[in-house]
Design brief:
This protein is mostly beta strands. The chain is built from one helix and five strands, in the order αβββββ. The chain has one helix at 3-9, and strands spanning 14-17, 26-32, 36-42, 60-65, 68-71. The strands form two sheets. The chain has a three-stranded antiparallel sheet, with no helix packed on it. It has a two-stranded antiparallel ribbon with strand order 1-5. The two termini are 14 Å apart.
Amino acid sequence: MTIRYRLAALAALVFAGAAGTASAQEIILYDLPNFQGQSVTINRATSDLSAIRFNDRTSSLRVVSGQWELCVDANYSGG
């Protein structure tokens, strides 16, 4: 899978942090490639990015800390 394809797929992702860990977790989503444009910082499980008006907008991301599971659809579903 090419990097371009992976980044294109990120546009529809929902993110869920690994629950129950002792360390802080943080991920930053950007609406443009190369960590540019508007951003949103997430530090807890988020089942639907629509609630924060960032659904289908992610073009790049930076994991600051923690482990994250990437899901294609809302409510931690999709493949």
